[in-house]
Amino acid sequence: MYFCRIVLKPIDMNVRSVNKQLEASFKANWWKLALSNYKGETMNYAMVAERIEMIHVVFRRCGLNVGDRVAICGRNQANWGVCFLAAMTYGAVPVPILHEFHPDSIIHLLGHSESRVFFVDETVWSHLDTENLPDLEVVVNISDLQCLMSVKDDIDAIRTDVVMGFRKKYPCGLRPEQISYYEDKPDELAIINYTSGTSGFSKGVMIPYRAIACNMNFAANVAEPQMDSRSRVVSMLPLAHMYGLMFEFLFEMSIGAQVFFLTKTPSPKVIMDAFAQVRPSVIIAVPLIIEKVYKTQLKPVAEKLKFFFSAPLIGGIVRRYMRKRVRSAFGGVFEEVILGGAAVNPEVEKFFHKLHFPFTVGYGMTECAPIITYIKWNKAKVGSSGKAVPGCKIRIDSPESSKIPGEVQVSGQNVFLGYYKNEKATKEAFTSDGWFRTGDMGVIKKGYLYLKGRSKCMILSANGQNIYPEELEGIINNFPYVVDSLVVEDHGGLTAIIYPDYAASRMYGISKEEIEGKLNSMLPEVNKALPQYAQIRKIEFLENDFERTPKRNIKRYLYQKNK
């Protein structure tokens, strides 16, 4: 469904608040579609605003103050967005918690964040030890917004009072001119976002409103200027991560766009079906999605047409055909696919560049809410993550930043305030002159950032050479029947841990022993492409996939060996 064009650019952070921008968007787009559960409930902006106000009644009833913590834990769905917006526009601090976390970890984070109100998915709630919950005052079911627990009051009384309180305040129903959201300040704490990286230790990242404003301005003026109130987006990344929260939800709400939540595990099939039906205006994704399309749909065709692919005239026709095929698979109307959250397989990246497919690779971190670098797809360079975005500066801690990898360091409006209740980690995260230390290694060439890997992952060879396992893994992952791999230090040498595609091999009648034999035989070929100090000594196989974070990154710390 399309409506008249209304373009609301995100805020000038020196003039208006983030919440006031959301207020303006709601008022301007009152009857337009806002939040949809894919193949389920759809709400317009008026309905979302009404639910927000009902929750505000609950907040006022339990005496919630500006700055108090409100935790949210559950799968992506429309009401998750309602709960988040309700907390933020009230002046409370939303605390998104990944529903994939272990129940004990969820309880720990509720206590660590000192949350007073808890919005939770029924499935998550059923697995929590309610006897050991921290000092929560109210627990609310995300799905139906019904109270599950109250420390002070009877649950039925709360429900009655909320309904009566809303009707008393808005006897004729809520009108757009009646909404008034909390006016935030740039350096004020907006969100506490707990990381779920590969190190195994979760830290509460304190995101200020200026960082949100900076990312909104970037989206509106650089990455997605074509988007407006007619635009549609499929939300498939976890909303408890800043990447999905910012670019698949918050920015869209600030311009009056419509967001579709998958509500279920985002398998490649589910995602592609949603793309075909929703036809999104822009696609925000992790590399796994595009890599899956490449391996299953494009690579087999490319190998069959290898001769024609490189031919001057026919090659152009073949590439146009394949580009059209991919565009159609992603809905056909998007302007650009923006990838982030993990490194892209080099072979896949080169192939899509050769197709002139409109995709680009950005770079960000939770601590920067999240964007650090980006470049439009038609200016992108293979292997690069783009250039520093407006409002952000990057530098390389290296004597020769264009040649010798060093730590990527960041300064700007998008940088976080520190880690919640963790002064030691906060101090370690910043240089003496106030730059954020990302922990990532890279070089800068003509303004373009080229990442080499995590400093924590870097392996120092016996002769003092730096080895970046991500680069070796990129080579291994290009071989047939490899789903994913991990290179680790093992008693002074390097071991490649491989998760083979056993399912695919069975389809072709290849036994487990045969597939492992084929992969072992590739080791000399892999080493042929590597310098002597980076040679892989042996291969180990996993029966099941690696343990992963919700962003599909491997939890590397679980697979470390004796060094």
Under CATH, the topology of the largest domain is which? Rossmann fold
State the fourth-level CATH superfamily of the largest domain. ANL, N-terminal domain
| Total of helices | 18
Number of strands: 27
**If classified by CATH, what would the architecture of the largest domain be?**
3-Layer(aba) Sandwich
Oligomer classification? single chain
Gross morphology: globular
Total count of domains: 3
Helix share, percent: 25-40%
* Major beta sheet, strand line-up: 4-3-5-6-7
| Main pleated sheet | 5 strands, mixed
What would your notes on this structure say?
With 563 residues, the protein is an alpha/beta fold. It folds into 3 domains: 18-30 and 42-214, ANL, N-terminal domain (Rossmann fold); 283-333 and 336-454, Rossmann fold (3-Layer(aba) Sandwich); 459-559, 2-Layer Sandwich (GMP Synthetase, Chain A, domain 3), CATH 3.30.300. A hairpin with a 5-residue loop joins strand 23 (459-460) and strand 24 (466-467). Helix 2 crosses helix 3 (78-90). The longest helix is centred in the middle third of the chain and has 18 residues, at 287-304. The radius of gyration is 24 Å and the shape is globular. The N and C termini lie far apart (58 Å).
